[in-house]
Amino acid sequence: MSPNPMNPTNPMDAGGPIGPGLGEGLPGNGPRRTRRTAAAPPQYVLTEDTPVYVISVAAELSGLHPQTLRQYDRLGLVSPDRTAGRGRRYSARDIQQLREVQRLSQDEGINLAGIKRIIELENQVTALQARITELVDSLEGAATALQQREAAVHASYRRDLVPYQPPTPQSSALVVWRPKR
Question: 48, 92 in Cβ contact below 8 A?
């Protein structure tokens, strides 16, 4: 006996080897509407730097007390974004930095002033690396432009000219030229 896709008695037979879709093969259910594939562009994109966590959530995620987060903000160790009402909003990057400050303080025994200096130096290194990348890209662009200009000059050469080749010194004879009178 072959499976009958119109027979609702065995739903596994109705949709093939993996079963029917939601509502398919059941009496009274018509075809489902499919979602449009060309959706509108996203209104809001969340990144690692998007401030979304209030101080209580940030404290819980980082394992610190909210008062500690306020102290770190006052010292400039971790500076969250502010809302219009001056409330703090932490990003995922801020949470990661809070954990790093806690690790340096508790595990490494570094004081808060030292941690602030470490963070400043790390930020400076990151900025310098970004500048190096920018300069390398600019240099590569200039080299490409130079090669293109050089190729254009070479392409403009006249092909009917014979390149000059200096004479090879084979003889040491002196030739004197005298004009005819």
Answer: yes
